[in-house]
Design goal:
Urease, subunit C, domain 1, TIM Barrel, globular, alpha/beta, 20 strands, 8-stranded parallel sheet, 9-stranded mixed sheet
């Protein structure tokens, strides 16, 4: 298909200054840039900005993609590619030991999806047929591998089990997984020791793939948690991207700066280390992660039984002092329920509001909600005010940070909307372009676009994407800078963005005049 985009302000993704010109597209690729003779369908981009399609460096859309293939919440922000399977969670590979765990997680987010795959190739085939609204870069999760081999046993892995995990990891990477993710703050990943992690990350390095890591702790032991992964990275030489490398309340004053200085030094010695970050003070988290590990011994069903025991509850109330220190400090107005099946009427409310409504102490409310989630308990979500605005700005403006949603594709109304209680889902890109570029002028438009296009393409080795360049795939977004607006917030998080005039996937128009075209052109890259 021949398309000519005429007279646009071109922000090409390199970070270089914009220029005015035309873009010629033929057969899905960019063929000409500059002064281009009109051919085929002509789009008048005068007064509009043309940039590469946005690449979301950290997403969990694999939880909802099979239910919501249109991916409208992402496409209407200009997002054409997402990196999924993060934080140690992926929907493949499946064995007899982890199938129930994966099914319970998917059932919460995508209740109509039937699991009919086992290995990673079969999972990719399922995503590709009949396609998706967006492209994905799909990682294999450490927690999924651990459950595949150890099942419900939450303990240290033996050498034999590590070997089996490594074999399953290698097979998944050979079958199309773009890399390996760890979530060391979550069950079951938090039970892995350095020996286990080193054995697995060594496989990733040998396959020349990437390791993305959500570290064990970002408050009291922030520096120690980072050092653990950096030591393994030095030993294995593996490419590394830290997931939302941020200092939470409880970390030492200079920890973040010292960590970033150390990473810069390691990069100067040839190690490939980057990171990503959301663009909000409040972030999402797993509700059950406030609970101690012993509660889950024997699996989720046993944890549910224990949560219903009054004597165990008394014991638990003195042990919910991990993950987010806001729980330990009982800062209930800074925490809200963002995802659960059993109490949809409570979604979006702070835990102080929930306690007032239910007429009982907050922790009892939380224990009740988790117990009523049953097998789906690991999927229950909360939002928390985790950072200062100053820290968000110093992170996202740092040259080693890609920008990301840490969200998932959703609908304004529909089966996937019940967990859509963070504005990142529908509005993270407009927040960057409106708030951080136009309002507070944290960085230039060119820098912001590069952090959402060419930089993540570089991190994940996406050849032919992330730039407006001759020969590159024509994934593009066109918008009016004056009209780009942050339209959602925590009070009203569900609204499709109207910021993009056009979005192209592989040279085909998928959003036109801010309206979706319902084409499933996305594939696993």
């Amino acid at each position: 298909m021949l398309i000519t985009i005429k007279g646009g302000k071109i922000v090409d993704g390199t970070g270089n200054p914009y220029f005015y010109g035309d873009v010629g597209i033929n057969n899905g690729r960019i063929t000409e840039i500059g002064s281009v003779k009109a051919k085929g369908k002509v789009i008048n981009a005068k007064g509009l900005t043309v940039c590469p399609g946005i690449i979301d460096a950290h997403s969990h859309s694999d939880w909802t993609l099979l239910q919501n293939r249109k991916s409208e919440s992402a496409l209407r922000q200009g997002v054409t590619t997402e990196v999924v399977g993060n934080c140690g969670f992926s929907s493949a590979p499946l064995t007899g030991k982890n199938a129930a765990f994966i099914e319970a997680n998917l059932k919460a987010y995508a209740p109509n999806v039937k699991i009919d795959w086992k290995n990673f190739k079969e999972y990719i085939d399922r995503l590709n047929k009949p396609g998706m609204g967006i492209n994905t870069v799909t990682l294999v999760g450490h927690g999924t591998l651990r459950r595949a081999i150890l099942g419900k046993e939450d303990r240290r892995a033996t050498d034999s089990e590590i070997k089996k995990m490594a074999e399953l990891l290698a097979a998944s990477l050979d079958q199309g997984a773009a890399g390996f993710s760890t979530g060391l703050e979550f069950m079951p990943g938090r039970l892995a020791d350095k020996r286990e992690l080193t054995g697995l990350i060594k496989v990733v390095a040998e396959k020349n793939k990437i390791h993305t890591c959500h570290i064990r702790n970002r408050d009291r032991k922030f520096k120690e948690a980072v050092d653990e992964i950096l030591d393994i990275t030095v030993k294995t030489g593996c490419r590394l991207s830290f997931s939302h490398l941020s200092a939470k309340p409880g970390s030492k004053k200079d920890d973040w700066k010292k960590i970033m200085d150390k990473i810069e030094q390691m990069r100067s010695r040839g190690l490939n280390i980057t990171t990503d970050m959301i663009v909000y003070r409040a972030g999402p988290g797993l509700l059950c992660n406030i609970l101690p590990g012993w509660l889950f011994e024997g699996g989720t069903k046993e944890a549910v039984k224990r949560l219903k025991d009054p004597e165990i509850r008394k014991k638990l109330k003195n042990q919910c002092n991990r993950y987010w220190l806001m729980v330990e400090k009982k800062q209930w107005n800074r925490l809200s329920l963002s995802g659960c099946v059993s109490h949809p009427e409570l979604l979006g409310k702070t835990f102080k509001q929930i306690a007032d409504k239910m007429g009982k102490p907050v922790l009892d409310c939380i224990f009740d909600i988790l117990a009523e989630e049953g097998e789906g308990m690991p999927s229950a979500m909360m939002n928390g005010i985790l950072f200062t605005e100053k820290h968000v700005r110093e992170m996202i403006s740092h040259p080693l940070y890609c920008l990301a949603s840490d969200a998932n594709v959703s609908e304004v109304n529909g089966l996937t909307s019940k967990f859509a209680n963070h504005p990142s889902i529908f509005g993270w890109v407009p927040r960057v372009l409106d708030y951080y570029v136009k309002q507070v002028k944290l960085f230039s438009l060119e820098e912001a676009i590069s952090k959402m296009t060419s930089f993540p393409a570089q991190v994940y080795g996406l050849k032919g994407r992330g730039l407006i360049k001759e020969g590159f795939i024509a994934d593009l977004a066109i918008f009016d800078e004056k009209k780009v607006k942050e339209e959602v917030d925590f009070a009203k998080p569900r609204k499709y963005s109207n910021s993009m005039e056009y979005v192209f996937m592989g040279g085909e128009i998928v959003v036109e005049k801010a309206r979706i075209k319902n084409k499933l052109l996305g594939r696993v890259l």
